Amino acid sequence: MGDAERAATAEIDLKGESGPIVEFKDVTITFDVKPVLEGISFAVERAQTLIILGPAGCGKSVLLKLANGLLRPDSGSIRIFGQEITTMRERELFALRAHIGMVFQESALFDSLTVEDNVAYRLHEERVSEDEAHNRVVEALKFVELEQAIEKFPAELSGGMRRRVSIARAIITGPDLILYDSPTGGLDPITSTTIIELVMKQRDVSHTTSLVVTHRLQDAFTMATHRFDAEKGMVPLPKDGPDRGIDTGTKFLVLNEGGIKFHGTTEELVRSEDPWIKEYLG
Amino acid sequence: MPFKSPEEYAKQTIAAVQEYSILCWTAITDLFSAPRYWADIFTQMDSIGVGSMPIIILTGFFTGCVLALQSATALTEFGAVSKTGSLVSLSMVKELGPVLTGLMVSGRNAAGMASELGSMKVTEQIDAMRALGTDPMRKLVVPRLVATVFMLFFLTIIADAFGIGGGALMSVAILGLNGSSYLHDSYRGLVHGDIVQGLTKPLFSGFIIATVGCYCGLKTTGGTQGVGRATTQAVVVSSVFIIIVDLLVTRMMIGIFGS
Questions:
Q1: Cβ of A95 under 8 Å from any chain B Cβ?
Q2: What is the pTM of this model?
Q3: Most CB within 10 Å of its CB: which of A72, A113, A196, B219?
């Protein structure tokens, strides 16, 4: 099968309604001699948000990079939009990544480019006209409430602003899957809340499937118990509602020492009897 | 720093040679297919070519000056001081021009490439580029390779010209030779094979500078300290490679042209 055919197949599968968007089956990856992730299996359905928790160094960021094909596993299967990505060539992965947005841990903005060029990077690669690219950049920057910084360079921005630019860059093409790698890492609590509100806004406005890596439990539970309101911003879900104040589309995956400690809903997580989970949440 | 076992060292060396070979092969094959980043190629040409001109002009000029002074001392003993022009032009065009230009550009640009790409690697900008659907090989390596090979060729010609010019200045001002006869002797001393030999070497040197600089940058690990290590490694390895390849090309050219 040629590149064009494979790309076309990917396009068809993206539009399919059935099957999980992300599916890991028995995935193992080893750096040097130590397995970083071992026997990882889980699936994320369309419009679902999976919050990945775990202590530092447990393989959360590695898991996201595997999901985007930036790393290849030693064994196991990873299917994104129904496509097996572990056997894909890099060129085929580039086509698939057009449907995936990624927010990196330290923003990973191109420091030689302005905010506008950073956010429009993918549009420039796709040869979108300058006028259209500019309009879409302004729209994306309005979404993250940062349109005034359009001409600045990343070095002139604060950590929170950089993270917001990174989110704008990830969402500008309206991806079908967004991977957030510690979007609030290293930020103060107020800025973290702003970023979480943006993640939630993307979840509730665009209903985009997302994987959110975080080590901050308060951010994770805020996402699970709040929703975005266009007028009021972030509001708690009513406790007397049908879902008892919990977002049913948000699930948790807890990693420890390269393995899955927990995978399930918010309620199952807080009621878990596992001593390690209890101590971790404690 | 812990000592590595010989087995570990051998494995790492072989893996590095393999990775470097793959990078070179991929860069060459990517030259012949789209997408091509012309804007990046021209930016790199400006940075590598125009940016290196001052050091190349100074290096070439003063090398020519010293060469004329040093060779005149020896040539005087044989009563052949009038052959200074021929000796300077032959030395500059066949050997010193290409090698010194290669070494100077290596020090300036291989280091620049390694530190720039290394910084991008440790701040995840390379991963971000891949995540945004851009092949870093095409966007970062190929433009640097094309620009270095292309511009080093012309930088070598400039270094040769200024070297011969520097030799002329010394010959006229200090050795008291006739300027016209110096230049005439310089021109007559060169044959077609000398020019071909002198202008083949920068093609190889340019390839070495770009690929070693990019390889060291893209393999950077260990934060800012790693960037410093990659930069040093890029300059050392590319300089040594340039001198080794210079020997091989010289031998090959002697085989082809006979001198």
A1: yes
A2: 0.88
A3: A196
